[in-house]
Design goal:
Blueprint: H1 2-20, H2 28-34, H3 48-63, H4 72-96, H5 100-121, H6 126-129, H7 131-158, H8 168-188, H9 193-210, H10 218-243
Helix pairs in contact: 1-3, 1-4, 3-7, 4-5, 5-7, 7-8, 7-9, 8-10, 9-10
Protein name: Tryptophan-rich sensory protein
Organism: Luteimonas terrae
Keywords: Membrane, Transmembrane, Transmembrane helix
Length: about 240
């Protein structure tokens, strides 16, 4: 199972590179531009995938070598982490193929898998003994906590399920659900600094994009993103003081 984690960690950047070269069809940026939403982030934000892939690969090598091979916690999370990496990898060709509903199922599955791992690694004493695993999986889960809802919003627009001329109402509902997910997971992780940092990176990128976005309601959506980031930061401070 440790080898499977490593293989899936290698597969993610390889498939990402193939996806960007057009092997599976249009790249993610091209498809995303076809379906503008009030939850989309500035393009620079997605460069974080490079950091995510690097940390995941380092974690995968680390957990499969040395004394870590006998670590019970790393052994327990290994199959779930491998599943999260696998789902992340297959999301890319699915998105390029325009299979949006499949993408939604896959990305929420990846989020559930990696968030569960991050919660296990955030328990008392676990993070200090498994710092690299905690960092890699917390950041991956943090980004997916936003990306999943961005993906859902684009799926709604792509299929015309809700009004695309007046998106603010249902976009605010998605923001509310995403805020609940972020705050709940951060609470379960006892105020996770890495999770907070990557979430704020994404939320600020949404603010940056939406303040100059021509869609009706974009400015409101931008400030909602900032408000969620502020609340998440306050929660993190309070949780860390409580568990100190």
């Amino acid at each position: 199972m440790r080898l499977l984690v490593l293989l899936c960690a290698i597969a993610m950047p390889v498939i990402a590179w193939l996806s960007q070269t057009g092997v599976f069809g249009p790249d993610q940026g091209t498809i995303s531009d076809r379906y503008p939403t009030l939850l989309v982030a500035a393009g620079y934000a997605f460069s974080v995938w490079g950091l995510i892939f690097l940390l995941d690969l380092l974690y995968a090598v680390w957990q499969a070598t040395g004394t870590r091979r006998a670590d019970p916690l790393l052994g327990r999370i290994a199959p779930v982490a491998a599943l999260g990496f696998f789902l992340t990898a297959i999301w890319m060709p699915l998105f390029s193929a325009g299979l949006f509903w499949a993408c939604v199922v896959v990305i929420f599955g990846a989020l559930a898998s990696l968030a569960w791992c991050a919660v296990q690694l955030s328990r008392p004493g676990a993070a200090s003994r498994h710092r690299l695993a905690w960092l890699a999986l917390s950041i991956h889960a943090g980004w997916l906590s936003l990306a999943a809802f961005l993906n859902l919003a684009q799926t709604i627009v792509a299929h015309g399920l809700l009004p695309t001329g007046r998106m603010l109402g249902w976009s605010l509902v998605l923001w509310a659900i995403s805020a609940v997910v972020l705050l709940t997971l951060n609470w379960r992780m006892r105020g996770n600094i890495a999770y907070l940092a990557i979430a704020c990176w994404g939320l600020f990128a949404v603010w940056f994009k939406q303040t100059d976005w021509p869609l009706a309601g974009a400015v409101t959506s931008a400030w909602v993103a900032i408000a969620i980031g502020v609340v998440l930061a306050i929660q993190t401070v309070l949780l860390r003081l409580r568990h100190r």
